[in-house]
Write a structure and sequence with these properties.
alpha+beta, nine-stranded antiparallel sheet, elongated
Length: 153
Amino acid sequence: MKKVMFLLFSVMVLIFTGCTSDRDVPNHLLFEGESKHWRGEVEIKQSKSDSATGKYNFAQRQYAECLGDDVEQLEQSNDIDINWTLSGMTDIDNETYISKFQREIGHIGVDDMDSALKSNVNTFYVEEDANLKMVIKWGENEETIQLELIDSE
């Protein structure tokens, strides 16, 4: 009888602990990658929301720089559109940004996260092993940058 009670108590503790356990949310992630013509970077700052259970504060900064030899010529041409898409994060996959060709795209010159994409009601957070890709299209060209985690806190 004691063994049965102990077993039932142990199962209840495991269930209760599993339901209330806090998942570790990495607070700061930095992903970088490079393709033939582009170097990309995504910085993420995130934390559990204090005001909403099961929600996460989230700030994201994207940046890419063209490494090609003909950058100045491309910048001077107003005919070339550029668009870029970030994939690999739940709920913001395939959000496409469009502009005229620029050497730098995304949150240019943003060292802090003040001008970054922010939210405090996300139902997701980004894991350290996220498979992030940035696809950049300009003119007739397209390249995919596989982003790798280079820093995590």
